[in-house]
Design brief:
Elements (H helix, E strand, L loop, with lengths): L26 E5 H4 L7 E4 L7 E7 L5 H5 L4 E5 H7 L14 E4 L5 E3 L8
């Protein structure tokens, strides 16, 4: 895939390594920390879709700075199935409604976070 500056991204997974895990969920956004550097997803949220086919899901490693996220070359659009191949631990959460926010603990467990930051 070619990013906006013309540099080619070297993804951790090859297209031939992508299995069908969660078909038909639409597209999402994920950072290069996940797809290029191979970090597990530690923060994910679902917002109102921007257009048809958008699942509303946004995926992050949790290590991205605001400057990193603000640079559009560090984020790309993917099929949700592709991101599930990078981190199968997200699959049980993908049916969550719009507004859902999840953080992964150091122990690897997912907790739901309210919009005001309360965890439960």
């Amino acid at each position: 895939m070619r990013c906006t500056e013309g540099a080619v991204k070297k993804f951790l997974l090859k297209p031939t390594e992508i299995r069908v895990l969660v078909p038909g969920l639409g597209f999402c956004f994920a950072t290069d920390q996940v797809t290029v550097e191979g970090h597990l997803i530690s923060y994910m949220y679902r917002e109102e879709p921007e257009e048809g086919g958008d699942s509303g899901w946004r995926f992050f490693s949790g290590m991205e700075s605001q400057n990193y996220v603000d640079n559009p070359s560090h984020t790309s659009i993917y099929d949700v199935n592709t991101i599930a191949n990078y981190d199968e631990g997200i699959i049980p959460l993908l049916d969550a409604p719009q507004g859902a926010v999840f953080e992964r603990t150091a122990a690897g467990e997912w907790i739901r976070v309210d919009s005001d930051g309360d965890k439960h």
